[in-house]
Design a protein that fits this description.
The protein has about 400 residues and is of the alpha+beta class. Helices cover about 30% and strands about 30% of the residues.
Length: about 400
């Protein structure tokens, strides 16, 4: 027996739940189909469980950037603040403009969304995968893994991307979209750690450093970021590195400016190293970095600078060697061997080409009544709450379907 709804939302993540609430508030009968045992599983892990929902600052988006700007509108912060407040959720901001639930608990966000779905009388079926979406005359038929069949005048695809498969990340909607004639930009991990050559990171796992990191390809600087980075067992991570990961390819190199926050010029560091050589005379060369770099990192800089470290003393170093030390500390190099996969990525880049969607309603230009939201579209943002902002705004627009306006 076929059952009917006004709107079927496929996917119970952030954009799916927001879309369902927006549609229900417009008096649509809404059904959510979520294949996982519970809704919002990935949301609960966002921001290390703190859930960075948004950002007061203008963000950088990639892929179909103009489309992202259209979806976000003129004042997404005001629109989304009003929406979250309507759920009873208040936000707190840090010094860099990142907005969190005032409890700093992702579970608070999930609870507020689920409670509003309940208040609106929205039906949600978990553990219910979808096997087929079939266009009908002015409607869609949706078949589930349990053999149930549902009809609706509108379907909102909010299944997300392939990032974090352990939390439900997948590309299940891609075959449906391709069958319906949509063009898809190949999905790839974004905002992910990088695997690097082992020699440059040997012994450094667990060390955090603040500085400037620049991505190079064939000697040409491509992108630059500042912030804290982390050395891992297999490479480098941290927000600034993950920002670069979107552009990185195997064979690229990353230059880490370790002491740029202390010395503006390499010559200033060289002068300090000359002074220390005279003071630390009989001590080993790695002690030149005492008070400036962590011991393991100081040793690594000496090795990359070409010092043998076989019993030499500071007083044995000539100016050429000190020059190499200064140059290396102001530009420590690691080579990219690979990007970590979807299991370590925060988001997926790629998705439906946005020229095939209406930025006001997220509706397909090929199939009226079909909407595509969030990570399924060819839009991905930088770290800092921007991806969740886009997911929520795209959900609102799909749910509203032109019946309300963003500020």
């Amino acid at each position: 027996m076929e059952q009917a709804a006004d709107v079927i939302v496929i996917g119970g993540g952030a954009s799916g739940m927001v879309a369902a609430i927006a549609a229900a508030r417009c008096r649509d009968r809404v059904l959510i189909l979520e294949k996982a045992p519970a809704m919002g599983k990935k949301l609960l892990a966002t921001g290390n469980g703190r859930c960075n929902l948004m950002n007061k600052n203008p963000g950088r988006y990639y892929g179909d950037r103009d489309f992202a700007a259209q979806v976000l509108g003129k004042n997404p912060v005001s629109t989304l603040t009003t929406f979250w407040r309507s759920l009873g959720l208040l936000l707190a901001y840090d010094g860099e403009g990142r907005g969190y639930p005032c409890t700093y608990l992702a579970s608070t966000v999930a609870d507020c969304l689920k409670e509003e779905l309940r208040r609106q009388g929205t039906q949600a079926m978990t553990g219910m995968g979808v096997t087929e979406i079939q266009p009908l005359s002015r409607a869609f038929r949706v078949r589930t893994s349990e053999g149930a069949v549902y009809n609706a005048s509108r379907v909102i695809l909010a299944t997300g991307g392939a990032a974090q498969p352990k939390l439900g990340g997948n590309q299940e909607a891609w075959p449906w979209l391709e069958k319906l004639g949509h063009t898809l930009v190949a999905g790839r991990p974004s905002l992910t750690p990088l695997r690097t050559d082992r020699r440059s990171i040997s012994g450094l796992a667990g060390l955090r450093v603040k500085g400037e990191v620049t991505l190079f390809r064939q000697g040409k600087a491509l992108e630059k970021e500042r912030g804290e980075m982390l050395f891992t067992e297999t490479g480098v991570s941290g927000i600034c590195v993950m920002q670069l990961s979107r552009f990185a390819q195997p064979g690229d190199k990353i230059r880490i400016r370790l002491l740029g926050n202390i010395f503006e010029e390499e010559a200033q560091l060289l002068e300090e190293l000359i002074r220390r050589r005279n003071v630390y005379g009989a001590e080993p060369p790695e002690n030149l970095w005492r008070g400036m770099l962590a011991p393991k990192l100081g040793y690594a800089v000496c090795k990359q600078a070409g010092l043998a470290l076989r019993g030499e003393a500071c007083r044995d170093l000539d100016e050429q060697q000190l020059n190499r030390l200064a140059k290396t500390a102001m530009g420590y190099w690691v080579q990219v061997e690979a990007l970590e996969g979807f299991d370590r990525a925060q988001v997926m880049a790629g998705g439906v080409r946005c020229q095939e969607l209406d930025g006001q309603t997220m509706a397909s230009r090929l199939w009226p009544g079909l909407h595509v939201t969030g990570e399924l579209t060819n839009v991905d943002g930088e770290c800092g709450g921007y991806n969740l902002m886009y997911a929520a705004m795209s959900g609102l627009r799909a749910g509203w379907n032109g019946r309300m306006e963003a500020e």
